[in-house]
Design brief:
It is a single chain. With about 300 residues, the protein is an alpha/beta fold. It folds into two domains: about 1-230, TIM Barrel; about 235-310, no CATH class. Helices cover about 45% and strands about 15% of the residues. It has an eight-stranded parallel barrel with strand order 1-2-3-4-5-6-7-8, surrounded by five helices. Helix 4 packs parallel to helix 5 (about 140-150) and helix 10 packs antiparallel against helix 13. The two termini are about 30 Å apart. Bound molecules: flavin mononucleotide.
Amino acid sequence: MKFYFAPFHGISLRLFRNVFFNHFGGFDAVMAPFVAAVPASHLKPSYFSDTYPLSDTLPLIPQIMGNNAQDIADTAAYLYDLGFEKVNLNLGCPMPKITRKRRACGLMPFADEIEQIVDRVCETSPVKFSLKMRLGMFSAEESIAILNRVNNYPLDEVIIHARLGIQQYEGEADRQAFRTCYQVCRLPLCYNGDVFTKEDFCSVTWQFPNLRAVMLGRGMLQNPFLLEEIKENMISAEEKNKRFAVFYQDLISAYQQYFPCQTIIVNRLKELWKYFYHFAPLSDAGLQQLLRQQGDAFLSATCQLAEKSFI
Ligand SMILES: Cc1cc2nc3c(=O)[nH]c(=O)nc-3n(C[C@H](O)[C@H](O)[C@H](O)COP(=O)(O)O)c2cc1C
């Protein structure tokens, strides 16, 4: 079984990844947040500043988004030439301003177009290409239609977040609907969605024993020790607090070296505390109170929390 770290647009950027994976290792690969596929004439190394030059400690899979087969094929081939063995296509983002333009999850109802994209990429370059999708935008029948079209292509793998686009992040991952994908898919398959505990992981892999990989997302942000726990490491609360506090200090130092202004640093950290507060543990009201703090007050409150969160 392989483990991937999910992409988080605006959160799991290079600086965060490098600090986080220095402290919480064990993943086989990390997927970078998406960038738009662009025409060949716009491609230059600096466009991929979050992923290139490579500085990640773990194998990194860049992710692209778009709906133009030629642009996607050119962007994937360019990334391959920059040294990335694998490239992923985002078919999962549910944000209306993106799906309205038939991109990401908004492309899922159009299996023909997705097949054209896959066909063009496979024809253009030896890059190992994969799809990260949901069950569908409106209905789980969409993923089945797509799988039936792409099953015979030499795709590297298919990653499925077991929700519909219209659900956004609400409700629960639908493992029953994922089962149909599992039965139809002849490509290596990765499960994604709502793995928050070791028990969640065990029940997913018990239900779907032939998965190639599981992708962990919010579960890792809500408990950075999740993968170690899944891999049987029992870690005492005392050690967790010690390790988390050191990680958090390193993250603040990295942000302080890179960002010119404290407001940017605090805003970035606030995005993270929307996940960290689960283990802190803070009530919703406690989180709102924390998020209202500014500058040094926020930094010192969160450093104190980091030292005594795990109980
Ligand atoms: C703030 C945020 C940003 C995300 N950015 C991306 C992204 O850039 N690309 C992508 O494929 N998925 C993105 N996702 C989806 C996650 O990668 C993942 O598929 C989703 O959270 C479900 O997995 P989980 O339940 O384990 O978190 C994002 C999710 C969130 C909450």
